[in-house]
User: Fold these one by one.
Assistant:
Number 1:
Amino acid sequence: MDRREFIQGAGSLPLLAAGGVRTANADDMIVVDEAGQLFAHGVASGDPLADAVILWTRINVARGHDDVPVRWLVASDEGLQQVVASGETRALHSNDFCVKVDATGLQPGHQYHYAFEAMGLRSPVGRTRTLPVGKVEHLAFAVASCSNFPAGYFNAYRDIALCDDLQAVIHLGDYIYEQARDGYATAGSAELGRQLLPTTELLTLDDYRLRHAQYKTDADLQMLHASHAMIAVWDDHEVANDAWKDGAQNHQDDEGDWRQRRRAAWRAYLEWMPVRNHDHPDKVRLYRQFRFGDLATLIMLDTRYIGRDRQIDAMALADQPEALQAALTDPARSLLGAEQEEWFVRTLQQASQTRWQLIGQQVMLAPLLIPDLSGVLDQQRARQALGDGVVDALLSSGGGSMPLLLDTWDGYPAARRRFLQALQQHAVSPVVLTGDIHTAIAADVQAQPDAAPVAVELITTSISSPGFDNYLPTQQPGQLAEQFLAHNPHLKLFETSQRGWLRIDLEADACDAQWRIVDRIDQRDYAAGVVQSLRTVHKSIPGFGLQQA
Ligand SMILES: [Fe+2]
């Protein structure tokens, strides 16, 4: 049933029990009945500060409904008896009835519970946490990206929700995907009951709103949001594949004006996500920082929309190696844009007051050079997946210095040099967190080969999007990883076949990373485990760089 249909008899629906959203049994969680629930899209919190947090929900009424008065409350207990903050707001028709509140006056380093009330009903209860101040001994984060609704169940989100000790979830984008019902990664969606709404590729504000709405009916995603504060930033698929500042690979002229499409997508994102609101629809600065006492600063960057120059088309320049080199080495090309780069340097200087600098961003920072795949690639399947042109190019440039992807920092080497210089000059002990690539990767990030690492890079695999092994199938399992690791010695992990998330545990002297995986996404039942653990000691201690834990 379409979410836009009016809720009949909402006033007579039973209230959801406090804490009911946090049970492990999928059947006990929020009933995702779009017609029958006023709070069918759950609750969420995000962008925590020491004294404030954004609280989010949506009132699921019909499109033509009047604005709805909404009460919100924050309490120190799960039963919502010890209320510490409350207020009134309205779910506005003009905001798709999404409700966002900046709840202030909170205590630092505290866990809180919150809920909304509207039309005589109370929402599920969410849990959140403010940022700590002063001396901080330990912080735990989940890092996630690339949740593709039709590709499988969000079991990895549930695995994150079930971790009780997280400070926050850092989401690095591809929170939604813009594809049509029969597009990318949709082959099994009918059997999974996860066929996309709308059926077409997202172009308009209504399209993007409906896709966000569909995602937020997912029980595991609701459980994730109800369990932890989220610090989110977008990647390309929140608008369109391989986006840059003036367009995208997946935006054609006959799909209308790029800026209008992007404005619609951004607006829906800001309505539907628990991020602090921004003042101007054409200039959304999603880059920002969070401070966790004396232990860490988290700097979130936008490598997609605000300053990225157009990606180089390596296929178009395949028979013009000099032109390709000239484009690649052009010092003017930027990934962050001048304004964000300046802000980054300034912020990094301030962040040196904390022991660690976490940098959350989208695309891989360390080089990923194409290995010699001629002896291992299952060419027949690879050609089916990628086409002859791409496979031939991969095989002919394998084993040399050609990067696999030019949408990453590999396609912007001058910008990467400036970025690494900033880290060298201003960061105390930097850890870069990356999404986008659907692969669990860890890399020592060096200014030159064989040099001591400037930073370490920890890359989370996808929640459900297909990994590299779908496109680069090998004759034997594990061969792809072997070849990439051998040809890229700065990589300490390269695991393409697993879906999951990345757990970070930070203490004064060490950053521990665990790649947690779920064994399946084609069923709600799953088993979770750790595929790899790597430790990085603080840069003030000899031996900075990724080590087996
Ligand atoms: Fe993705």
Number 2:
Amino acid sequence: MKTLGLQFPVQTLDGQILLPSGTLLDADAIGGLMEQSRSENWPRLPVLEYSTIRKDILYFFTHPPYEIIFSGEKRVNDVLGLMQEVSLPLPLLEILERFREADFYTYRHMLLVFALSALLAREMVEDPEERRHSLRASPTHDVGKIGVPLEVLRKPTTLTPSDRQILRHHVISGFVLAGYYLQDFTLLPVCVARDHHERRDGSGYPLGEAIDDLFLEMVIVADIYDALLSPRPYRPNAYEKRSALEVLTTMAEKGKVRWDVVETLIILNRRRKHPPDGERRVSRERRGAEPAGNSYSLPSRDEERH
Ligand SMILES: [Fe+2]
Ligand SMILES: [Fe+2]
């Protein structure tokens, strides 16, 4: 694997520089950070118990565009039960809370990617221990966006090449922050913070290496789906659910994301039509078009900004 380098410094919420720009993320740099983090003893809390998170999630579940996929008492209770088992060290929860105040879109997005990943894991991962493990992958996936200036995160026009460079750096900042606060750089959520913009065909970033990992790829599909469904400052309309699923279907056909995860998402979106396992069939015909009047809404641009 190639060694990543920092193009920008990585800071904690209170402004402490963890690593300066120019640092190579080699074994020495990671070892040094690990040593530094071991002297800390951050309290850990269940994500759902922190601040207004549970209340906010219940609001998102009962309002469009998520009121169908998160409908049915059993489904919702199962998903909440899975999410309830994930705890995070306090500084990572404080970063979530900072997004709630400064950039509600990113806050909402992180919680919904967590919830969608839980729903996908409920369907796709049979072993309860494995399922619990997979759940830890998602709630911190975009934590590195805390280092991206708000004017870039909320920019209403197309990103410039330098904006894009700053935004793309969130996967490296996220890897550093998640590894530091979770005190282990080999954990699933730390790797997911780094790899959630990679693609199966190697067309993603930061490494541009082909991936093949169900737990990572459930987060990737949830990430793209929520980004397409959400109102964004740079396009007047969000995608309809069918159009968003169409974008994902096309990506699966091109070998960029896992077809089985996309297929599960399509089935989950069918209200009160849950065929038993083994009888699931999904049509690959076109499902919809992208929203009208979206001058900046090409999927490739959307893909850049989640
Ligand atoms: Fe994201
Ligand atoms: Fe991201």
